[in-house]
Amino acid sequence: MAPQWAVHYSLTYTSWSQFQELKATNSNGDTLFYKDESFRDAYRIALGTTYYMDDNWTFRTGIAFDDSPVPADKRSISIPDQDRFWLSAGATYAFNKDASIDAGISYMHGQKVNFKEGPYEFSSEGKAWLYGMNFNYAF
Q: Using an 8 Å Cβ cutoff, are 49 and 7 in contact?
């Protein structure tokens, strides 16, 4: 790519399969609560770009996909997790070599999922807007 462009990518693996159960016991070792979770390992894939417009302005965009560790048959009212898709954008303005300001926005869209717990049926969908701004100063 041209010198003013950068491409960023990542693949993250999380070994969620270690979380198989949620269990509470008392001091005698008796089980007070037990829930089979059966989480599976999951991945997060992300791709982004940075454009260095000039000495002052830098722009960023990105896209990501989060794979849910919760198997469809294990979704519950307490953990109604779903796959998520992310879109992000941001910018940096550098006042000088020591001071800059960053601003960013992300939209997360969780897949709509339906699940049953006991005699009840549920539907869950997660959506969120995340905003951020910070001032940077090097000394």
A: yes
If pLDDT is split at 50, 70 and 90, which confidence band does 15 have? Answer: very high
Nearest CA among 123, 130, 45, 132 for reference residue 85:
45
**Total domain count, the chain:** 1
- Give the tens place of pLDDT for each residue, 119-133: 999 888 889 999 999
- Euclidean distance between the first and final Cα of the chain, in Å? 32
Nearest to 82 by CA among 53, 114, 58, 104: 114
Please give the structure tokens belonging to residue 90: 């941001």
pTM for this model (two decimals): 0.80
Among 90, 94, 92, CA closest to 56: 94
For residue 108, the enclosing domain spans 5-137
Rounded Cα–Cα distance for residues 127 and 112 (Å): 10
Calpha distance 123→111 (Å, rounded): 11
Q: pLDDT of 84-115, one tens digit each?
A: 999 999 999 999 999 999 999 999 999 988 88
- Amino acid at site 86: W
- Which one-letter DSSP state was computed for residue 119? T
